[in-house]
Amino acid sequence: MSNDQSAPYVIYSTQTGEIGEHRHLRAIDFTGVPLSPADLIPLPEGTTLSMLPQRLAVGLNVADQRTAVSSTRGWALAGLLPIGYTRTHLPSYEKTPETAPLPFFGYTAIAGWHGRLYAAAIRTDSPTHWLPSAYDHHRLERLVRERLTAEPENRILQQHAHCALDYHCPTASNIFLRRWEGAIAVSPGCNARCVGCISKQDEDNLVSPQDRLRFVPTMQEVVDVAVTHLEHAPDAILSFGQGCEGEPLLQARLIEQAILQIRERTASGTLNINTNASNPRSLKRIYDAGLDSLRASTISARRETYDAYYRPIGYTFDDVKQSLIVAREAGVYSSINLLCFPGLIDCEDEIEALVAFLRETGVRLVQLRNLNIDPEVLLPRIPKPHGKPLGIRMLIDTLRREVPEVAIGNFSRPVQRASAHAQADAAPR
Ligand code: SF4
User: Fold this and answer.
1) Going by DSSP bridges, is the β-strand pair 55-56/94-95 parallel, antiparallel, or unpaired?
2) I need a labelling partner for 216 at 20 to 30 A (CA). Which of 58, 252, 360, 373 fits?
3) What pTM, to 2 d.p., does this model score?
4) Was domain 128-426 assigned CATH 3.10.20.30?
5) C-alpha angle with apex 301: 296 to 305, nearest 5 degrees?
6) What spacing in Å lies between the alpha carbon of 247 and ligand 1's midpoint?
7) Closest atom of ligand 1 relative to the 310 alpha carbon
8) How far is the CA of 206 from the centre of ligand 1 (A)?
């Protein structure tokens, strides 16, 4: 029997959206494991609290029995962390029958402790440039209006105005705020069918949170937006490959030609591509055109897990590896966008494969990305992970020990191709 009043306890959302505490129920995670103080950090600034509809909050009672909070009191509550924090535990809940899947967000376990809110997370980068408080919506609205008035024909600006104002997308907003990492979407199509795609979902009961881009921009539209951003933005990064589009490599020719024209007009800033890295030949042409950095998306370094999640069309996991190896040979700064799902990527075999993959490909930076998905949508669609989960903290510690030359963070850095190696060393460890 445990009656440890100092243990983290269950937090839930009342029917009216207030935060409720159940101090006699120990907080647990999705797998039923009690959350200890060592798992928790004070709720980070910029965290959004998300009520989990039709899901009861659950915890352990004094007899260590799994116990649900009655729906008359309210529903389970989770946290959506700002970029800069990596989730270590998924939230616990009890689904009521006939419950619809949760929207595509990165749900994180939260708990109460000594009267304060805590999250099961670890700080893995500086969130400053990504906090909601860094985006003044009224100023953004004014700048969007002015820019669309000045360039009424540019459809990329119209697309990213929608993303900035309706989805609060930081990289789309930065195009109008003329700073940091800015977005350019170019591809309506994709050669993968990711289980957690946020811009296109085929299954009836799954709704993608963003509208997929519906046009291929012209060269001029791309170059105009890119040059303006690279020339005016502090710490400028211009990134092809955004959440609101398909796979940018399906427009490789456009990107290659655009980079050549952009670099004729400006040497400033970093040209980056976020991609599923499915085509090493097309990427080689883009590297040769002048790309500075690449971020390849993956959920695993094990083929069967990769294939189950990405459901690739016409390419293989070997193509992804080859794209990174060619990037290293070309001096392009490469990182992976590692989709983090506790209980998957932190399993023994997954960690072992990831270490080998990083050594083989020469990746310079691992960007940890909390995977935005309902756990009960993902788990039935991927093979059961091999080996027991060691925890996200152990994953990070293992990477730091086994591949110390690889940086760990949560977002891309400005890098200049010429001094990629010098610049890269400034990245976090
Ligand atoms: S690669 Fe991107 S656009 Fe394509 S299915 Fe996956 S998440 Fe969606």
Assistant:
1) antiparallel
2) 373
3) 0.94
4) no
5) 105
6) 6
7) 6
8) 15
